[in-house]
């Protein structure tokens, strides 16, 4: 969980229950938007199936937030795999036909970066995981482990190397029939980057909270201090805090096994899948947090990808990957009880 943390005053009564929830005074119950002229503008909207909360401060705060919401609506439609006339549907419907499908620039960029990080993470990240994701989504809803035949059939449709890209034409193709793409692990990160760009254009500061796993701080507090974001304990209920991270001109993304899962025979079957095995990742972590500075290229998009990839890879392999990445990120690895491994940039100094 990520949540803005003020200095402790009320003990565990202050603990928040959402995966990512930024506590802002203007978010009173039922409040959809708040505007103080030339100071702060806050609005909420449902984007990507979750509640997005945008807060901006500055003379152009309202214009920045409204433009972000318009941009998010465009991206929501662009990344909708169920839209029959959308580019994703065209790409999927031509899977195995050999046909190259032209892509709009935003979708092309997401796929290009995705493929780069599939290679860098040795397939721990794989955007073609959709057939497995669909199988396990139903299994988690029903509380039933898929059969070996079902797993094998879905696994045979997953392989990032079978998504081919032509950079000059910005086109793509899936080389095997019935392959598909799952953008659930990248769309929020890309959207964070787009909103950060809009905030910068309007010279405003504030918070971009896209719900559940992705947040960006453009600037920091009015006094120049960074925002303090609380990290959720993966097992305690009601949720408790593990510690905090300071966030200023940076993004943070997280992946955890505690939102969508079921238990069978003492095993937790969750939605974060290892594309190489076809099963929920069985590494040594319960959640992973990734932080990237705003000046890093594709900070939001890459942090979104890496929170999943390092969860799948596990702590030892994940830490080994970090120095070889083209972007500098910080990571925290959480087991069932504590943050047990982290790189610089994370602070876990308070407990409640």
Would you give an account of this structure?
By secondary structure, the protein is of the alpha+beta class. It is 28% helix and 27% strand. The strands form 5 sheets. Strands 3-4-5-9-10-13-18-19-20 form a 9-stranded antiparallel beta sheet, with helices on one face. The chain has a 4-stranded mixed beta sheet with strand order 2-1-11-12, with no helix packed on it. α3 packs parallel to α7 (299-313) and α7 packs antiparallel against α8. The radius of gyration is 20 Å and the shape is globular. Residues 3-35 have low confidence and may be disordered.
Oligomer: single chain
Sketch the major β-sheet. 9 strands, antiparallel
Output the number of helix runs. 8
Helix fraction?
Answer: 25-40%
Q: What is the 3D shape? A: globular
Write down the overall mean pLDDT: 87
The number of distinct β-strands equals 20
Strand order of the largest sheet: 3-4-5-9-10-13-18-19-20
Report how far apart the termini are: 15 Å
Q: Runs with pLDDT <50, length 5+?
A: 3-35
Gyration radius over CA:
20 Å
Sheet-strand content, in percent, reads 25-35%
Summarize the structure.
The chain is an alpha+beta fold and 352 residues long. It has eight helices and 20 strands.
Topology:
Layout: E1 2-4, E2 20-21, E3 33-36, E4 40-47, E5 50-57, H1 61-78, H2 87-93, E6 101-102, H3 105-120, H4 130-142, H5 148-155, E7 163-166, E8 171-174, H6 187-201, E9 205-209, E10 214-218, E11 227-232, E12 241-247, E13 250-256, E14 261-264, E15 267-270, E16 273-274, E17 279-280, E18 287-293, H7 299-313, H8 315-321, E19 329-334, E20 339-342
Parallel strand pairs: 1-2
Antiparallel strand pairs: 1-11, 3-4, 4-5, 5-9, 6-8, 7-8, 9-10, 10-13, 11-12, 13-18, 14-15, 16-17, 18-19, 19-20
Helix pairs in contact: 1-6, 3-7, 6-7, 7-8
